[in-house]
Design a protein that fits this description.
By secondary structure, the chain is an alpha+beta fold. About 50% of the residues lie in helices and about 15% in strands. It contains four helices and four strands. A hairpin with a 3-residue loop joins strand 3 and strand 4. The chain is elongated.
Length: about 130
Amino acid sequence: MEIEIQIYITNIRKFFDTNKDARKEMFNIPYADEEMFYEGLVEIAKKNYEVHGDPTLSKAEISELIQGVIQQNIRNELKELIAKDMVKIVDVSEDGTPILQVTPKGIKAVEPPPEGPFQEIPGYGYICLN
């Protein structure tokens, strides 16, 4: 790897290590994996260096990168839920978005109310009415 790319990646890591607010803003989002971000950062920095002679990413490239990481992690989790038979794809919308359904295995079992003169009181459960 070129030294310019290594310096750029090191500076980005140092920035997020020392600037806690920026780190929180960037990586405190569900599915925003920091290591996946850095892996993608290296790839884009290499491409930028080869094409432009400068590894620096634009704001748009950084935004696309973090969005891509989030989307990939969501896809991975969805694949796991499908593999566990907790979710299934029942159809696909016109724009290509899958329509999902939670399967009985993915629904938490709820006990039916007892028969008779019972009323459920939140925090107390069922009480018998005389």
